[in-house]
Amino acid sequence: MGSVRAAVLLVLSVAGAATVLWVAWRAQPQVDASATSRATTEPAVAARADGGDPGAPDEPRDGRDAGAPPELADGGSPAASGWLLGTSSAHKTGGLTRWLTTLDHKDIGLLYLAFATVAFLWGGTDAMMMRTELFVPSVTVWDAHTYNALFTMHGLTMLFLFGTPVLAGFGNYVLPLLIGADDMAFPRINAIAFWLLVPSLVLLRAGLLTDMLGHALVGGGLAGLGEQLLSLAPPATGWTFYTPLSTSLELPTVSVVLLGLHLSGLSALMAAINFIVTIFVERDVPWRDLDIFSWAMLTQAGLILFAFPLLGSALLMLLLDRTFGTTFFAVAGGTPILWQHLFWFFGHPEVYILVLPPMGLVSLILPKFAGRKLFGFKFVVYSTLAIGVLSFGVWAHHMFTTGIDPRLQASFMAVSIAIAVPSAVKVFNWITTMYHGTVRLTAPMLFCIGGVGTFIVGGVTGVFLAAIPIDLLLHDTYYVVGHFHFIIMGLISYAVFAAVYYWYPLVVGRHTNHALSVAHFTLTTVGITLAFGAMMIMGNDGLPRRYAAYPAEFAPLQQVATLGAVLIALGVAVWLFNLVQSYRMGDPVTTDDPWNLRDHGDRRTAEWDELPFRED
């Protein structure tokens, strides 16, 4: 019955998201006739809907008559055309064919972002299903296997199908514009890297889909077919696939998921090579003028180049153990600890693969609304490179409880504490950039500030976990979950939301609604504080993670955490509504400086030159 309930909640979640999008699409703008008449005779002085300054009245930028609509280079109109402003072009095919065959870096970037959004919503649904079970101490909503499968799928989906692709999406769309390149160095490889993610998603999520469909068929009278699908139950190994459980579990879907992970790794590797070659070969700016986001993407690509091949090799060895009886990770042959070494040698650089580009986004966007240049630009670049190097020397701090040599433990503890230094450099530089600055609390700036705050909490709590005596007490407790999510759901999601709001006028040609953006920020911030703050308190009191049942005394804190998760989900619903509604009827962009950066020090970067409006 647990899978049936999971299917029902999944259907309700999809229906809820569809309802939000439908309401946003069908909403009609409220037009004030008197305001319309005044707008024809008076200059526009109201604050922009997305929180930008009112600035000067919008004027034609290319010498056309004042009454003429601003036209795009290819003859379109940003306010009236159905195309995305930054990707419309006369020579492109239309409809579905365009998106299936495109090699344009902007289109591929948007495909990455759309794919990552679907994965984010699906992985978030897994999290809400887990929080539903954890609302009460006993196992009542799902069964234990379904809970473990949800935990496994949530981790894999968010890390491999949301975190890495969403950053590749921003990199594909913006990075060539920032460095003056016409496109990515290898457009076809760029397209292949994206399309590999689609079968990866299918293979990773196949177990839950077949399980839910099997229960539906059994309930509908097709017991024979339903039982066959039920034999393909979702894996419940945990997203780390620790051996010997992952080698001994007789579920074919474990091998299917491993193949899906391998495809996602190949996709990330091809994208990383493309970014490296693009920055080195296609760059039209000198190294000293390279922007901080491009530096972060270059460092991330270097980490992927060294980390993901190791993951691919470990996955193949695990598949050989499962399929052909080899003994790479068997107790009698190799050792299960070898899997942990290989996995975490990839796994901890993976954390910085996910974190470094968001750090670059914050470093790029935050100064633009602080009215100052990024303080200590070179030190931020050096700290980015230092994190990339040090990230390969900290993997065994995940293994302090496995009985490895204490001398090795001490060396990994030292490096784990040392890596906090370049991270702290970034935080101090962000704060100093805002100090004595002219801070404008636009939507992107709110999320940048929120990302800095959550990163401080997640980073400081991580320093405690780097100390061996403390880690021995807190290992595998909810404290680790809270710390990790303050980084992942804190800094990463905040930076992604900031980038979406910041570049939305560039891509769509319209402004988002500032009031809805503030509501999104408020719900997300309160939700993250409640959800993961409660987890850290529970972990500090010794509650182990990864269990569907728990002692009754922890129920109030678990319910607070569930309330926080609900607030985060409401914030995401507001975000989706804002994007869709703004696409249909947001204030049109009529200038090549939609954030009024020129009036605050001319901190514009090259991507805004893609807007069709130019200064006289």
UniProtKB/TrEMBL annotation:
Residue ranges for the region (Disordered) are: 32-75
Q: Which GO terms describe its cellular component?
A: membrane
The protein's matches in InterPro entries, at most eight in alphabetical order, are given as:
Cyt_c_oxase-like_su1_dom (IPR023616), Cyt_c_oxase-like_su1_sf (IPR036927), Cyt_C_Oxase_1 (IPR000883), Cyt_c_Oxase_su1_BS (IPR023615)
For biological process, the GO terms are: aerobic respiration; electron transport coupled proton transport; respiratory electron transport chain
- Highest taxon listed in the record's lineage: Archaea
The annotated topology with respect to the bilayer is: Multi-pass membrane protein
| PROSITE patterns documented for this protein | COX1, COX1_CUB
* Location(s), subcellular: Membrane
What GO molecular function annotations does the UniProt record carry, in alphabetical order? Answer: cytochrome-c oxidase activity; heme binding
Which Gene3D superfamilies does the record associate with it? Cytochrome c oxidase-like, subunit I domain
Give the transmembrane ranges. 108-125, 159-179, 185-204, 256-280, 292-320, 351-367, 379-398, 410-431, 443-468, 480-504, 516-537, 557-577
Q: What is its main location?
A: membrane
Q: Ranges for the Cytochrome oxidase subunit I profile domain?
A: 99-596
The UniProt keyword set, sorted, is: Electron transport, Heme, Iron, Membrane, Metal-binding, Respiratory chain, Transmembrane, Transmembrane helix, Transport
- Renumbered to this chain, the signal peptide range is none
Provide the family line: Belongs to the heme-copper respiratory oxidase family.
Q: What is this protein's name?
A: Cytochrome-c oxidase
Tell me the organism.
Halobacterium bonnevillei
